[in-house]
Sequence to fold (267 residues):
Amino acid sequence: MEHNTIVAAILGVLEGLTEFIPVSSTGHILLAGHFLGFDSPGRSFEVLIQLGALLAILGVYAGRIIQILTDAPRDPAARRFVAAVLVAFLPAVVIGVMAHGFIKTVLFETPMLIAVMLILGGLVLLWVDRRTTLPLYHRAEDFPLPMALKIGFIQCLAMIPGVSRSGATIVGALLLGADKRSAAEFSFFLAMPTMLGAFVYDLWQNRDILDAAAVGNIAVGFVAALISGVIVVRWLLGYVSRRGYALFAWWRITVGILAMVGLTVFG
Fold:
């Protein structure tokens, strides 16, 4: 197995393990790829393997998704929840399309920025996790539409690698009155259209530069992300309900510091 294939498998596992926890999967993959000497055409690998993580959450939540969609025609609460997820998704569509080139050619190519954002995001997550205000919402299905839209705009901060899509949505939901479990759960549901949209758009943008080797590496990373993603999704909600987000905050800070040291010493 050639070097790039091995690294693709490692990065795929890393994607699945980090996509749904607030530590920035893209930041981890870009930093790991930098130090492991992995490069992908148009930085497509880092986006396209997210399909594996997306299928992981679809598999785990298949029953609940089908139930919500089945109930939507006759249940106002189910319709409101579907609308809330779509409303939260809209800012990412507009801003993501407008800023796509800048994100891929500038932000994705700045490892030191990623390390800094990991540390800053960890500090914010620690602060939010330690707040003692009583939550207003205990179920993701109860989030009102204005709150969902605000979470959607906050999610757009994750277009800066190192911020974390799940981290931004979770912190946004917590600040807007959600409890820890419902914040993570809404992040799961919002991930579905967001990741699918990013996959389709990036695949279309890079359709002419993906050769057989790149597609093979993406396939390896996709499978690895799918398997590790299932494990994380099944574990995460129970963990954050009991323990909160401090572990992930300290993980971010540690990885960010190590990355800054590595970039300073090795470049």
User: Anything to note?
Assistant: The chain has one domain: 3-266.
